[in-house]
Amino acid sequence: MKTNLFDPFLEEPAGPLVQQAMENGGIAVGYTCSYVPSVLLSIPPLFPVRMRAPGASGTELADIYLSKLTCSYTRSLLEFSMDFRYDFLGGWVHAASCDHLRRLNDNMTYLLSPDFSHIIDVPHRAGKEGLDWFLEELKILIGRLETHFGLTISDDDLARAIADYNNFVGLLTSVAERRKEDLPPLSGTEFHKMMLAAFTSPRHLIRKPIETFRDSVRERKNIKAPRARLMLVGGQMDDPRYIDTIESTGAVVVADRFCTGSIPGLDPIGPAESPLRAIAEHTLLAPSCPRMMEDFDRRLKQIVDTAAAYRVDGILLEFIKFCDTWGVESASLVAALRESGLRVLSLEREYSGTGLGQLQTRVQAFLESMGK
Question: Is the pLDDT of residue 3 over 90?
Answer without folding.
Answer: no
